[in-house]
Amino acid sequence: MPDDTQITSAVNSTSRRQFMGYAALFGGGMALVSCGVAFPELTAAEKQDIDILNYALTLEYLEAEFYAAFIGSGPYAGKLSNPRVIQYAKEIAAHEASHVEALKKTIISLRGTPVAKPTFDFSPLIGNATVNDQLFLQLAAVLEPVGVRAYLGQVARLSNPQLIAAAAAIHAVEANHVSAVQELRVKLGFNTTPERQTDIAPQSVTRPNSTAAADFDPNYAPAPTALWKALTMAEVLAIVKPVIK
Fold first, then answer.
1. DSSP state of 242
2. Pfam families, alphabetically (predicted)?
């Protein structure tokens, strides 16, 4: 089994480089937009692509805000104590921030308007629990697979092949995040059923269709299953609604 440094390095090596490379494909279009070049009316397919990217941007805003909350000047900064956990939080925060910027640039290059960043409040997920390494990793184990399954649910609806490749790049990185957080939870003794493979994380076996956080099970294998099951946009938005003000 790889150590924590190998895990986080592998995740880090595929994130900004891969997706920013795809985002650069649209740089020329953004330059033309900034120069005021006239374009024809957006097609229905182009509008749908932009809508999907804005949906993805909202989820990336959420994930970036979550990790930022536990580092730097975030509201829960100082609550983490294990150096490996702190390293994970900082590196994944950087990944998610890069995803946000890349999506915003891509949306603009496609003549769309990036959605504004919502106000997030993670206290409904935390409740009266003690904020520490274990809780942070438990929440990460719940949030990360939602992102994976959200991308999977929308990628087939994109009409632009370059956008499909870019979405696949982010999807791969988010899946790496899932494995990395569960590897870390196993090492620290926080994952009670590390052998449980699943294709519906974080949803549980007993309540596989629930979108309520109280019904989720954060304990599953670092390699969840051979195949993931997609989440619809409606299901994802129902899951994240409690933390969006």
1. G
2. Ferritin_2
Residues of 30-54 as b/e, b for ≥16 C-beta within 10 angstroms? beebeeeeeeeeeeeebeebbbbbb
Residue 15, pLDDT above cutoff 90: no
Measured CA to CA, the distance from residue 138 to residue 182 in angstroms comes to: 9
Cis, bond preceding 202 (omega within 30 deg of 0) = yes
Read off the pTM.
Answer: 0.85
β-pair partners for 61: none
| Residue 42 amino acid letter | L
The rounded mean pLDDT for the chain is 88
Give the DSSP letter string of 88-118. HHHHHHHHHHHHHHHHHHHHHHTT--PPPPP
What angle, rounded to 10 degrees, do the helices at 161-187 and 16-23 form?
170
| 158 against 18, higher pLDDT | 158
Give 199-227 pLDDT, tens digit per residue: 999 999 999 999 999 999 999 999 988 88
H helical segments located in 35-160: 44-68, 83-109, 123-126, 133-154
Asked if 125 and 41 touch (Cβ cutoff 8 Å), the reply is: no
Are 16 and 98 within 8 A, CB to CB? yes
CATH H-level superfamily of 4-25+43-243: Ferritin, core subunit, four-helix bundle (1.20.1260.10)
CA distance 213 to 217: 9
Tens digits of per-residue pLDDT, 99-135? 999 999 999 999 999 999 999 999 999 999 999 999 9
Q: Which of 88, 58, 49, 11 is nearest to 167 (CA)?
A: 49
Q: Which amino acid is at 158?
A: L
Tokens of 222: 């670092």
